[in-house]
Amino acid sequence: MAFIKEESEDLTIEEVFRVKQEDTGTQTDLMVLKEESQELNEKKDKDQHEEYCDFKTEEKSSCCSQTENTSSKKRARKKATGSSFICFHCGKRFDQLDNLKIHMRIHTGEKPYTCEHCGKKFYQQGNLKVHIRIHTGEKPYTCQQCGKSFNKKGNLKVHMRIHTGENPFTCQQCGVSFNQKGSLKIHVRTHTGESPFTCQECGKSFLRKGSLRSHIRIHNGEKPYPCPQCGRRFAHKSTLNVHMRTHTGEKPFVCAQCGKSFRYHLSLNNHMRIHSRESSFRCLQCGESFTDRRHLKNHLITHTGKKSYMCHHCGKTFKNKTAHDSHVRVHTGEKPFTCPQCGKSFALKGNLNMHIRIHTGEKPFACLQCEKSFIYKRDLKRHLQTHSANNV
Questions:
Q1: What does the pLDDT average to over 92-112?
Q2: Could you give the C-alpha distances from 217 to 196, 203, 214, 230, 236, in angstroms and in order?
Q3: How many other CB atoms are there within 10 angstroms of residue 258's CB atom?
Q4: Residue (of 294, 333, 298, 336) closest to 313 by Cα position
Q5: What was the pLDDT predicted at 23?
Q6: Residues contacting residue 198 through CB under 8 Å, at least 6 positions apart
Q7: Average pLDDT over residues 145-153
Q8: Is this model's pTM higher than 0.70 or not?
Q9: Phi, psi of 97 (to 5 degrees)
């Protein structure tokens, strides 16, 4: 273009436009020639390869395999146009080839990363890194509001919803919302009736995999949760947590009306009937009501006078089974209630409960005059006599 301009400075606009068109046409022709040349070279290579494969019959399968691999790579490059790598198994797309390679392990089952502590294998190195925290106890993600720590960032994210009150997963059938997708999935089964986890021993089915795992311990007798203080083992962690209260003396369930504390939630519920006067068990003979079916049963004996439980050792009769069983231990010497801290055994559970106060330091019997407290009620009675003597 510069050469043409030097030849004549007086070219008209039409001539300049014509020259540009000619120049563009020349470039286009060169590109076409280049593409045709590439196609001829590829065809030539293919023909030479086919001739070589025909000539070398022993190596034909190997050569053709190489051709197919080359073709596959070319197809992969074509598929990669627009920065998209496609999985030929499921059609999923990836921006990077490395991500596709990692994804392919799902289809091939390859797990190249192994935990040196327990031998468990993983698809990705990141998953192994997170898993190892189970062994090391590392919890690098800490809640800024309550200080609780987690070994996974996702677990912290879910935990934060407790503080924010966010429940983003809603049941389409009843409108109940959940802070975890897994919780919603399990909840939906209550509508569908699905119980996908079945015990192979007895055929019982469960909504949750964890429930099945706990249930199987009934069959195999496994008790993986030991008490660190007395060594007693439990099948469930929740049972161990409740058991620990016998050592700590903790009574977390408090009556809002009278302040009395209880070790078990069920005990608090039974106690609340005293305040609510909920008496659903009524004696048909005298109309008296009771908060517990067992109490009503024992009451009915007062009308009949019947003592249906007889000791086979001495012939003594009792109105209820509890009194009978406690009496029989006098003959057998059985002491089924053992202190988890010192190992001392007792024939009656009530005696064990009183004994445990020695370890916990609990003194429930208080003097109203001097506020001195005692472990046993008999000690309080003896102490009260000192006040009576002083008054005289």
A1: 91
A2: 18, 14, 6, 21, 9
A3: 10
A4: 333
A5: 44
A6: 204, 205, 206, 212
A7: 91
A8: no
A9: -65, -35
- Residue 269's closest CA among 280, 253, 293, 258? 253
**CB atoms near residue 200 (< 10 Å):** 8
pLDDT at 281 over 50: yes
- Residues 141, 150: contact at Cβ < 8 Å? yes
In the chain, alpha helices (H): 2-7, 13-55, 60-79, 97-108, 125-136, 153-164, 181-192, 209-220, 237-248, 265-276, 293-304, 321-332, 349-360, 377-391
Q: Which residue has the higher pLDDT, 158 or 19?
A: 158
CA 334 to chain CA centroid, nearest Å: 42
Encoded tokens for 181:
């997708």
Distances (CA, A) of 224 to 232, 240, 242: 10, 10, 15
Radius of gyration of the chain (CA): 42
Residue 174's pLDDT is 93
Q: According to the model, what pLDDT value does residue 49 have?
A: 40
pLDDT at 255: 87
The dihedral sign for the CA sequence 208, 213, 219, 224: negative
**Residue 377 identity:** K
Dihedrals phi, psi of 290, to nearest 5 degrees? -135, 150
pLDDT at 71 over 80: no
Question: CA quadruple 183, 188, 193, 196: dihedral positive or negative?
Answer: negative
Q: Taking Cα atoms as reference points, which of 361, 362, 367 lies closest to residue 382?
A: 367
pLDDT higher than 80, residue 80:
no
CA distance linking residue 300 with residue 9, whole number of Å: 129
290-321: per-residue pLDDT in tens?
767 777 777 777 777 666 677 888 878 887 77
Q: Residue 110 and residue 132: Cα distance in Å, rounded?
A: 19
What's the token pair of residue 24?
């563009």
Indicate the burial class of 295 (C-beta count within 10 angstroms; 0-12, 13-18, 19 or more). middle
